[in-house]
Amino acid sequence: MSAVAYDLRGTRGYLVADAHGRLVGRVECPMYGTTPDEPDALAVRTGFFARKRRLVPAEAIEQIDGQSRVIGLRVDREGLLSFL
User: Is 13 left (phi over 0), alpha (psi -120 to 50) or beta?
Assistant: First the structure.
């Protein structure tokens, strides 16, 4: 686990890639769960017209590159929960 805490509030529109560099999708919005002012997960849309989304917890994020607007994960895309 990384000790770095990322601010997930400004990540809308970022691309998300899994541990192998494969595209997971694009961040639709941050999701709030444990506290109302700090997001602890991201909702990631898997395709352009897809209705399916994946839940990316903050613990799964390896790095966020603000320059290229890409979020790198430390898990495979199959390890993420999907929801509608």
Answer: left
